[in-house]
């Protein structure tokens, strides 16, 4: 079992509140977040950006291992994730995570690549965690 940690300190409430996120690895160390970073494009991060990064990283690693198990040696996998936050029923809900993958995998055909990519999307731990629509668009460079 692996346990990873993060902590948040938040001062003030509502739109005036400001927080800082620190991860156990300290790759984020008192990284600012709050209403302005989440909804107004101010510098800092927000939960949806962190979820997008986690989903893209998790999916890409799962696909990398799936390709290796299938006997392929790598070139590149590049994944973007776009996490959508919508106002619903008087609150906010993450409604979608859209993954977009561009890959170079020598010797693979498009059908096997699609199968392995879709399997990775379904089975990466972050995909399993998210209770929202997940889409995957992929392209394979020859």
TrEMBL record:
The residue range of the signal peptide is none
GO molecular function, a single term:
peroxidase activity
Q: Membrane-spanning residues where?
A: none
The family database entries (Pfam families) matched by this protein are listed as: OsmC
> Sorted alphabetically, which SUPFAM superfamilies does this protein's record hold?
OsmC-like (SSF82784)
* UniProt record, GO biological process: response to oxidative stress
PANTHER family listed in its UniProt record: OSMOTICALLY INDUCIBLE FAMILY PROTEIN (PTHR42830:SF1)
Q: What is this protein called?
A: OsmC-like protein
Taxonomic source organism: Sphingopyxis alaskensis (strain DSM 13593 / LMG 18877 / RB2256) (Sphingomonas alaskensis)
